[in-house]
From TrEMBL:
Similarity remark: Belongs to the sodium:solute symporter (SSF) (TC 2.A.21) family.
Keyword Transmembrane appears in the UniProt entry: yes
Keyword Nucleus attributed: no
Name of the protein described by the UniProt record: Sodium/sugar symporter
InterPro entries: Na/Glc_symporter_sf, Na/solute_symporter
Domain of life: Bacteria
PROSITE patterns named in the record: NA_SOLUT_SYMP_3
PANTHER family, per database record: SODIUM_GLUCOSE COTRANSPORTER 4, SOLUTE CARRIER FAMILY 5
Annotated source species: Flaviramulus aquimarinus
Lipid bilayer topology: Multi-pass membrane protein
């Protein structure tokens, strides 16, 4: 057992890198006699099948945030963090049934484009600028930082070199090929992601059981740390402030999930690239089922690592390697990289490829969506309205490259944060409630006016900041702050809309019909199955 990489680990990882780059560049090639246009670059020619959409959704979502951040949260607070994954499965069903039909009917490239069609160019620009800042300074930077942390922990490579390497890897195919390269390589990335995650889970549980197998290991983990297997935390729990009990199910987490899965460009973009609405909904259904198993490969290893470091006999068996980069309550995010040290030669390369796949696929998705928003909503709106397809695609590539360079510079500045997954959720939660309020009312309440939506979006930020920094004990959990901010923003929008239009429908209000939300028998049956499985899981771990 060694802490570093050996020859076969490098062979496996290099083979993975060549495969991803090869496939990405192959699907990115220009077809004979056809110049790549905006639809090709930003929406993969609207040709994605359901299985590519479903796997790409998961690859874009599962990143270092989950592998490292969520494993760290599993180490620190237990299975309760899995609510993000399991509630996301239900959220995906809602998005597929009620949001996608409207988005696809309007033929959107970007989420800000919907804002322009429903409200105004001014509001679209406000939200486009916000998303660009969020993607670059929070999402891209945090994914690079966590990926760099993993490489530094596992391989001993300086974090700055690791960050630059990850950035160049993602840029190598995504900047040239656009969404098509991102989506098709994601299919491969998910295979590595799940396989590598399962290998690490197996190793952790088998180590806890002393080589007696996964089931015995899981049983011993449950017996050794029963407090880590409660989905609903009591108020006396130190982590209640991050996951406030029953309010996780009925409160602010819905704001985070609906915003992320319904109105987040780098997630929703692959559903807009579907062959048809039904194909997109089938992809959503596949992603929902995959979300149910994600905690097995990102949360359980963190809990197992907690049991391992607190069991002297296990630590004695691990020897000197076990003492290297050992996680602790203060440094919980070291849990997953620490576990990878114990994988045998070859499998360590597979698991590391899975982690790299998670990081690189998310980076590629974020880069593509950042360039899409800048190009379609800023450049073509204000700088060059008559830009041809060649210019548009080139601007997309250049803007993605600039965003990546900024994120590389910012990423090392995030050093020192712990439970990074919670950090990202908390600070995204300052702005997501206002955007969710604007979209929900814009989609489903025809009286919503443009001025009311603008004021709601702008005022939601000071409301969120006031709730965060003014000490009010009952509002201390940040999930409460998200829920309350969303409700207050909706109230502001409703009052201002009624005052402005005196109760009349807004001219740009969306006409909703029952036929718009009709779904296939397959989607309906699959949705019921997801709900039943969720009920069983929550009953088991309540």
């Amino acid at each position: 057992m060694t802490a570093g990489f050996e020859m076969w680990d490098y062979v496996v990882f290099i083979a993975y890198a060549i495969l991803i780059l090869g496939v990405g560049l192959w699907v990115s090639r220009d077809k004979e006699g056809h110049q790549k246009n905006a639809e090709d670059y930003f929406l993969a020619s609207k040709s994605l099948p359901w299985w590519a959409i479903g796997t790409s959704l998961i690859a874009a979502n599962i990143s270092a945030e989950q592998f490292i951040g969520m494993s760290g949260s599993g180490f620190a607070l237990g299975i309760a963090i899995a609510s993000y994954e399991w509630m996301a499965a239900l959220t995906l069903i809602i998005v597929g049934k009620y949001f996608l039909p409207i988005f696809i009917e309007k033929g959107l490239y970007t989420i800000p484009e919907f804002v322009e069609k429903r409200f105004s160019t001014n509001l679209k620009t406000i939200l486009a600028v916000f998303w660009l800042a969020l993607y670059i300074f929070v999402n891209l930077a945090s994914v690079l930082y966590l990926g760099g942390l993993a490489i530094e922990t596992i391989m001993g490579v300086d974090m700055m070199y690791a960050i630059v390497g990850l950035a160049l890897f993602a840029a190598a195919y995504s900047l040239y090929g656009g969404l098509s390269a991102v989506a098709w390589t994601d299919v491969i990335q998910v295979v590595f992601l799940v396989l590598g995650g399962l290998v690490t889970t197996y190793l952790a549980l088998n180590t806890v059981s002393g080589g007696e197998g996964v089931l015995v290991g899981f049983s011993k983990v449950w017996e050794a740390a029963p407090e880590k297997f409660h989905m609903i935390l009591e108020e006396t729990n130190d982590n209640y402030i991050n996951l406030p009990g029953i309010w996780v199910l009925v409160g602010g987490l819905w704001v985070a999930n609906l915003y992320y899965w319904g109105f987040n460009q780098y997630i929703i973009q692959r559903t807009l690239a579907a062959k048809s609405l039904k194909e997109s909904q089938k992809g959503i259904l596949l992603a929902a089922f995959l979300k149910l198993i994600i905690p097995l490969i990102v949360v359980i290893p963190g809990i197992a690592a907690y049991v391992m470091v607190n069991d002297p006999s296990i630590m004695a068996n691990l020897g000197e390697v076990g003492m290297l980069n050992m996680p602790s309550t203060e440094q919980a995010d070291k849990a997953y990289p620490w576990l990878l040290q114990f994988l045998p030669t070859g499998l360590k390369g597979v698991a590391f490829a899975a982690l790299a796949a998670a990081v690189v696929s998310s980076l590629a998705s974020m880069l593509n969506s950042t360039s899409t928003i800048f190009t379609m909503d800023i450049y073509k709106q204000y700088i060059n309205k008559k830009a041809d397809d060649k210019t548009t695609v080139n601007v997309g590539r250049i803007s993605a490259a600039i965003a990546l360079i900024i994120a590389v510079i910012v990423a090392p500045l995030l050093g020192g944060i712990d439970q990074a997954f919670q950090f990202i959720q908390e600070y995204t939660g300052i702005v997501s409630p206002g955007i969710l309020a604007v979209f929900i009312l814009g989609l489903f309440w025809k009286k919503t006016t443009n001025n009311a939506a603008i004021w709601g979006a702008v005022l939601s930020i000071p409301i969120a900041l006031a709730l965060k920094f003014i000490p009010i004990p009952v509002f201390e959990p940040w999930m409460h702050q998200m829920g309350i901010t969303a409700i207050l923003t909706m109230i502001i929008i409703v009052i201002m809309s009624n005052v402005q239009n005196k109760g009349a429908d807004d001219p740009k209000g969306i006409k909703i019909t029952k036929d718009l939300f009709k779904t296939s028998p397959l989607f309906n049956i699959g949705s019921i199955a997801v709900c039943i499985l969720l009920t069983v899981l929550y009953c088991l771990f309540w």
